[in-house]
Amino acid sequence: MKNYDTLSEAINDLQANEYPYDFNLKPECLECASLKIELRPEDFKVDKTYRFEGMSSTSKNGVKGLLVDAYGVYAENISEAMRKKLR
């Protein structure tokens, strides 16, 4: 797995290569506004994680994209199923 110095460097490289879509974290799912889809925990897998608070994911149907979310106090309130899936 490639190492990145900054979050913006990782986002630019991942979007240009394998992960072109942006996902937003919702309480029960991941949402991709540009594709107008919602992915429930059983519909995606996390295949890469970068620890300057970036994450990438792949859906069962092959859609790849990025989820960038805060941790701790700034984290989204999500369901237990989503929490388990994103650990």
Percentage of residues in helical conformation: 10-25%
The helix-and-strand class reads alpha+beta
DSSP strand count: 6
The best one-word shape is: globular
Q: Biggest sheet: strands, sense, closure?
A: 6 strands, mixed
Overview of the molecule:
By secondary structure, this protein is α+β, with helices and mostly antiparallel strands. It is 20% helix and 32% strand. It has two helices and six strands, in the order H-E-E-E-E-E-E-H. It has a six-stranded mixed sheet, with helices on one face. A hairpin with a 4-residue loop joins strand 1 and strand 2. The mean pLDDT is 80.
Write the layout of secondary structure elements.
Blueprint: H1 7-16, E1 21-25, E2 30-32, E3 37-39, E4 44-50, E5 54-59, E6 64-67, H2 80-86
Features:
20% helix; 87 residues; 6 strands; single chain; globular; alpha+beta; 6-stranded mixed beta sheet; 2 helices
Give a short summary of the structure.
The chain has 87 residues and is α+β, with helices and mostly antiparallel strands.
